[in-house]
């Protein structure tokens, strides 16, 4: 009976033994991020939970926290821009559809609900898209794949 272990069992495939630091297209980076995948390699699983980004990509090993402690302020700003855009668009659409008698109470309560729910719904997308935007301007380097001591 042949019971030899499978080659590379439990180890990453040989093609991942060297970090992928190649330059990706803007479209590729952002589409991967919008699908909540690693912008660098396209693998799933960069989020441990809805609000928790993993330290590294489970596939390529790239560090997902690529900067200082305030690195994700850009993601928060992106989230704020989206929330404000959604609120403004909803207000304009409701005003346009219901003019000359807009439902002021519905606008107030609906606006409050949108202001609370939209940032929660968009949060993981903002973090992933911000990572993709960062990779556009600062492509990954070998150091992004090396473990850092916290």
Question: Could you explain the architecture of this structure?
Answer:
This protein is mainly α and 150 residues long. The chain has one domain. Helix content is 46%, strand content 0%. The chain is built from 3 helices and no strands. The radius of gyration is 21 Å and the shape is elongated. The N terminus is likely disordered.
Considering the chains and any ligands shown, give keywords for the structure.
elongated, 3 helices, 150 residues, mainly alpha
Mean pLDDT: 87
Q: Helical amount among residues, as a percent range?
A: 40-55%
Radius of gyration: 21 Å
- H/E element string? HHH
> Which percent range describes the beta-strand content?
under 5%
What's the structural domain tally?
1
- The CA-CA distance between the termini, in Å, is 48 Å
Largest sheet: none
**Coarse structural class:** mainly alpha
Total of helices = 3
In the predicted model, the low-confidence regions spanning at least 5 consecutive residues are 1-16
């Amino acid at each position: 009976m042949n019971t030899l272990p499978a080659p590379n069992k439990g180890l990453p495939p040989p093609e991942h033994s060297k970090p992928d630091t190649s330059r990706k297209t803007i479209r590729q980076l952002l589409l991967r991020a919008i699908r909540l995948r690693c912008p660098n390699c396209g693998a799933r699983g960069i989020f441990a939970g809805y609000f928790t980004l993993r330290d590294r990509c489970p596939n390529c090993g790239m560090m997902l926290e690529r900067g200082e402690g305030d690195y994700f302020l850009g993601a928060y700003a992106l989230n704020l821009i989206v929330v404000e855009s959604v609120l403004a668009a909803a207000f304009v659409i409701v005003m346009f559809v219901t003019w000359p008698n807009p439902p002021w109470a519905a606008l107030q309560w609906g606006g409050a609900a949108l202001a609370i729910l939209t940032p929660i719904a968009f949060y993981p997308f903002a973090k992933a898209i911000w990572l993709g935007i960062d990779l556009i301007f600062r492509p990954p380097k070998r150091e992004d794949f090396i473990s850092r001591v916290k």
